[in-house]
Write a structure and sequence with these properties.
4 domains, 6-stranded mixed beta sheet, Beta Polymerase, domain 2, disordered C terminus, 5-stranded mixed beta sheet, disordered N terminus
């Protein structure tokens, strides 16, 4: 990198920088890379049987790709070999290396999964299949295709992490050779790498790959800025060479004096990290002081803290620049002590202190599992790496069937910042920055999240949307009857919480729609003189089967849900059912039929649907008229939207009845509603100080809750309208509230309003 010993930056610590801008591409190197010998040199950790299996996979891949060339004219087989070589650096096992050599065989060469299973076994075939894009299927858009491909890859990765390791090795080599592609493709591929693959690498702790992908993406997205910054770093490196060598010599001497073994390595900030810091903090290059630093690798954990004391005695630490990632590891398993010290010539230098095991995890993340297996077969440390995110992918998939929605949930978790919070029993949880109390509840357990009602942070009661900060102690309060609120989706930050809430709401909606559909079908059947059909009598199973064939539904639950959602008309289904029942000799009950027809014009028949306010997803109270108990009401079954309840006088309902009368059903209020309902009022007052407070006080006296307020913006007029959305128990409660408002000094008039027809108001007089 241009810095002479003893300060030498290891290639792993500074990929794709400085001299790495120029990519070697000699004919001799191309020929060498196309041979299996280039790979076998890295396979000394495997047995001869494994190497022979890898050789067979190489020969198969070489034959499959015969005649194919990459954009730079090299044989295509050079790419699978390069991918396998990267996997060999991570010390992956033989099946993973075989899959790396074969990863394009299914996609580009027409090789089937069955053929791979026959030749190399199901383990290798599953890995290759997980890496294969879904190009053979038809998608409406490129984004839809991409989302489905990512979902397939990520789910395969959750089941076997080797899938993503091979994919990241594949993407790394493609990015190293991206300059060979037409320039118009650079932006799309580099952006995808920066937004998706680099964050995945970071999330899995593959920091070396993470930095390389970032720098290569930066190089192709902003070539001029990359080149300019690379030159500036090279010049800075030359200017600070003597200073850095002095720091290294002083470090070596002080550790010799302390009789402590230590390995000192130089660390250089990646170009993309420098660029990102300059942009976000609005700094010039000269103002970025932490470009260079040192890593101290020591034998044991206790030595990390001892080393910290030694270097703090050597140089003065900067306040607020110390982080202990050993006691509290990062989300991806990273552990290290970070401190920034004021070195010679008042230059700030960052130091990272870690053990050898921590260093392996810091650079290789989940890949350290195989590195540990090779060096320490009995060491289970790698098994303790934080791979909860991988399992959470399967949890999210269980609740999310739509590929775009799945990918949306996953992207939420693909950023590095985190906050560390505590349960009341002092268990540490790491959550993404911006996570709320509800995210914490779902991180504990989905049942805790589903039944959350309130929370305390550091002993104080807080709203559920409260964002958490480092060190917060959170206590969640639950209730068995509580369920997720759709409003939570507006502020939760983790993919797990978002998918759990959506899944619960969808399940609840289907259950309620099925119950409503059963009631509607029973009501329609009673009108046809049939009663008791839906009671589950086995003698009607054949009739149900005929009905399902007629409607095209798979189960009776699905049919009832469709009726509840308004996708099917209960009266039409009932009439067809009567025909089927007639075929098995069941006739309409003449007495029931007569009674239903006789009472059909009454205010409410026995078959009316009763509403008490406990309905949530399947029944919605229309915002155009905001009906409340005491108002005459009707129900409208929208197409796939459940039932909307309108007041009988609502202009919107009357218009719908004129156009679509068969979708209206009889509904009535329960004698004892279980909650309050929203309605709109307008309060005309004189302008003046404290008017709003007096109106709000009057509403509070009437035991009315205010949901929303709209006020006029013109202060010049003497009179103004205050528009409220309030909650009341019924029409009697509303009349009491209006009387209370009317008696308030600044109030001139009060009226209940309708959103759909603001000119039609039910004024309260007297």
């Amino acid at each position: 990198m241009g810095i002479p010993p003893p300060f030498a930056i290891h290639p792993k610590d500074a990929p794709a920088q400085g001299a790495a801008v120029a990519r070697p591409a000699t004919a001799a190197m191309n020929a060498a890379s196309a041979s299996f010998a280039a790979l076998t040199a890295k396979l000394d950790y495997l047995g001869s049987t494994d190497i022979e299996l890898i050789r067979l996979a190489y020969r198969f891949a070489d034959a499959a790709h015969l005649g194919q060339l990459r954009n730079n004219g090299e044989p295509y087989i050079t790419h699978p070999i390069a991918v396998a070589a990267q996997c060999a650096d991570w010390k992956l096992d033989a099946p993973a290396l075989m899959a790396a050599l074969l990863h394009d065989a299914m996609e580009d060469c027409g090789v089937t999964k069955a053929e791979l299973i026959q030749r190399f076994g199901s383990s290798v075939a599953d890995l290759v299949d997980g890496l294969t894009k879904l190009d053979k299927l038809h998608f409406n858009t490129r984004e839809e295709s991409q989302a489905e491909s990512f979902r397939k890859m990520l789910l395969a990765m959750a089941r076997d992490v080797r899938v993503i390791l091979i994919k990241l090795a594949d993407r790394s080599h493609n990015m190293r050779t991206l300059s060979d592609l037409p320039r118009e493709k650079w932006n799309r591929i580099a952006s995808e790498t920066l937004e998706i693959y680099a964050p995945i690498a970071h999330r899995l702790g593959l920091n070396q790959t993470y930095r390389e992908l970032q720098d290569l993406s930066f190089r192709h997205l902003k070539p001029w800025r990359y080149a300019t910054l690379a030159k500036a770093v090279a010049k800075s490196r030359g200017r600070r060479r003597d200073l850095l060598q002095k720091v290294q010599k002083e470090l070596e001497s002080v550790f010799v004096a302390a009789d402590m073994p230590v390995r000192i390595a130089g660390r250089e900030k990646s170009l993309f990290s420098i660029y990102k810091k300059m942009v976000f903090k609005r700094l010039s290059f000269a103002q970025v002081t932490d470009i260079y630093g040192f890593r101290l690798i020591v034998p044991k954990v206790i030595d990390c803290y001892t080393s910290l004391g030694i270097i703090h005695q050597l140089y003065k630490p900067l306040p607020g620049k110390f982080k202990d990632h050993i006691a509290i590891a990062k989300l991806n398993g990273y552990q290290s002590l970070h401190t920034t010290l004021v070195g010679p010539s008042s230059i700030s230098v960052e130091f990272q202190v870690r053990t050898e095991a921590m260093h392996v995890v810091a650079e290789s993340g989940v890949a350290a599992h195989w590195l540990y297996k090779v060096s320490n077969p009995q060491d289970a440390a790698a098994e303790r790496l934080d791979t909860k995110w991988l399992q959470s992918l399967l949890d999210i998939q269980n609740e999310t069937r739509d590929a775009a929605e799945f990918w949306d949930h996953v992207k939420v978790d693909l950023f590095p910042d985190a906050v560390y919070v505590f349960t009341p029993k002092s268990q540490i949880l790491a959550l993404p920055r911006g996570a709320t109390v509800v995210d914490f509840a779902y991180a504990i357990h989905s049942n805790v999240g589903d039944h959350t009602t309130a929370a305390r942070v550091n002993g104080d009661a807080v709203p559920l949307r409260t964002e958490l900060k480092n060190g917060d102690v959170i206590q969640i309060e639950t209730a068995a009857m509580s369920t997720p609120n759709p409003a939570w989706l507006t502020f939760v930050r983790t993919g797990r919480a978002r998918s759990k809430i959506r899944h619960h709401l969808k399940t609840q909606a289907h259950a309620e729609s099925e119950e409503l559909g059963g009631k509607l079908l029973d009501q329609a059947l009673r009108a046809e003189g049939i009663e008791g059909f839906s009671d589950g009598d086995p003698s009607f199973d054949s009739t149900w089967a005929k009905l399902l064939r007629f409607t095209g539904n798979k189960t009776r639950q699905e049919l009832l849900t469709d009726i509840g959602l308004g996708k099917r008309i209960a009266h039409i289904v009932a009439k067809r059912l009567v025909q089927f029942l007639g075929e098995i000799g069941k006739r309409p009950d003449a007495v029931l039929l007569t009674r239903e027809r006789f009472t059909s014009g009454a205010h409410a028949t026995q078959a009316s649907i009763t509403l008490d306010g406990s309905e949530s997803a399947s029944v919605k109270f229309a915002l155009c008229c905001r009906p409340i108990p005491g108002d005459p009401i009707v129900g409208y079954l929208g197409r796939g939207e459940g039932m909307a309840v309108h007041s009988q006088s609502c202009p919107v309902a009357r218009k719908l009845q004129h156009k679509d009368n068969e979708r209206f059903i009889d509904v009535e209020w329960s004698d004892e509603p279980v909650r309050a309902f929203e309605t709109s009022i307008v309060v005309t007052t004189r302008n003046g100080k404290g008017v709003l407070a007096k109106v709000a006080e009057a509403l509070a006296v009437a035991e009315v809750d205010i949901v929303h307020i709209e006020m006029g913006h013109d202060d010049k007029h003497e009179i103004t309208d205050l528009r409220f959305v309030i909650t009341v128990r019924d029409t009697a409660h509303l009349q009491t509230a209006l009387r209370t408002l009317k008696a308030t000094a600044p109030v001139l008039n009060v009226a209940r309003t309708s959103h759909a027809a603001p000119d039609q108001v039910d004024e309260f007089r007297g």
